[in-house]
Amino acid sequence: MPKPVGAITRGTTGVNRLRRCDRWLAHSPRVRRVLTEAADPLVVDLGYGALPVTTLELAARLRAVRSDLRVTGLEIDPERVATAAAAAGDGVDFALGGFELAGLRPVLVRAFNVLRQYPEHEVLAAWARLRAGVTADGLIVDGTCDELGRRCAWVLLDAAGPVSLTLACDPRRIDRPSDLAERLPKALIHRNVDGEPIHDLLRAADRAWANAAGHGVFGPRARWRAMLAELTEAGTPIEPQRRALRDAVLTVPWSAVAPVR
Ligand SMILES: C[S@@+](CC[C@H](N)C(=O)[O-])C[C@H]1O[C@@H](n2cnc3c(N)ncnc32)[C@H](O)[C@@H]1O
After folding, report:
1. Alpha carbon 36 to chain centroid distance?
2. Using one digit for the tens of pLDDT, what is the confidence trace for 36-60?
3. Which residue of 21, 56, 77, 86 has the lowest C-beta tally within 10 Å?
4. Within a 10 A sphere around the Cβ of 185, how many other Cβ atoms?
5. CA distance linking residue 157 with residue 191, whole number of Å
6. Which InterPro entries does this one have (predicted)?
7. For residue 247, what are the β-bridge partners?
8. Is 0.85 surpassed by the pTM of this model?
9. 69 CA distance to ligand 1 centroid (A)?
10. What pLDDT does residue 246 have?
């Protein structure tokens, strides 16, 4: 077995922390298609942390899409692999591995709160390893969130490169959308400065959120929807949601936020 690629980092995790991303994955037409059509529906949860709770939750939520789905939790810390062993069973297992994916060929990789602890200049190489490791139509989610999973952001990638950026939050817990800036994935967190598209997007979202204040009487989700409508009207390429999600979510193509420098 080759040496796992990467470095052991803090193992912070928590029950239900990644629920917003799990729900988005189970809802996304592209993710659903890839899972449904896969000859071998293997999903990898890369870097599950000190306890494997989010791996078990991912398996349970994605089984709503495909009941025979298997999930392997990979961790670069051997002690965390040993701890997780007791939770294995029912199509979920745990193994030592890093960005090389331990020789597995999954159809979907989730790496949440993993790359945030790496230097920015290592992101592209890690993405390239992951992209080379998934199936031809496989997908990768590289995301970041706060401790309780109320403020989240993730990049969806395919074999060709980054596809989209999603911001997701509990809209009762934010003053403005740019509160999510501190949870941007590593590829963007240092780009929230003048002249960068992610900065423009967050500023436009803040303005639209302020303009949508009157919708707050119908609740923060209605205000979020009004904000999305204003952004769309102004030309921001917000991905439409085919079904109503209870989460406040904003997805744009990667081309709308890709760093310019
Ligand atoms: C902060 S925890 C994230 C836990 C969980 N994914 C979550 O979001 O709640 C990050 C974990 O990623 C692991 N890790 C870091 N680099 C890794 C790599 N290249 N491959 C596998 N695991 C890695 C660390 O050892 C750590 O346990």
Report:
1. 20
2. 999 999 999 999 999 999 999 999 9
3. 86
4. 22
5. 19
6. SAM-dependent_MTases_sf
7. none
8. yes
9. 22
10. 76
For the chain, give every residue range classified as CATH 3.40.50.150.
Answer: 19-169
CATH superfamily name and code, 19-169: Vaccinia Virus protein VP39 (3.40.50.150)
For 195, phi then psi, to 5°, come to: 95, -10
Q: How far apart are CA 163 and CA 176, in angstroms?
A: 25
In sign, the C-alpha dihedral spanning 53, 141, 29, 235 is positive
Q: Which two tokens stand for residue 259?
A: 């760093």
Q: Work out which ligand 1 atom sits closest to the CA atom of 77.
A: 25
pLDDT of amino acid 243: 66
Identify the sign of the CA torsion 61, 64, 66, 67: positive
Q: How does DSSP assign 179-235, residue by residue?
A: GGGGG--HHHHTT-STTSHHHHHHHHHHHHHHHTGGGGGG-HHHHHHHHHHHHHHTT
Q: For a pocket test of ligand 1, which of 76, 80, 110, 117 has the largest count of ligand atoms closer than 8 A to its C-beta?
A: 76
How far apart are the C-alpha atoms of 127 and 106, rounded to whole Å? 15
pLDDT reading at 104 higher than 90: yes
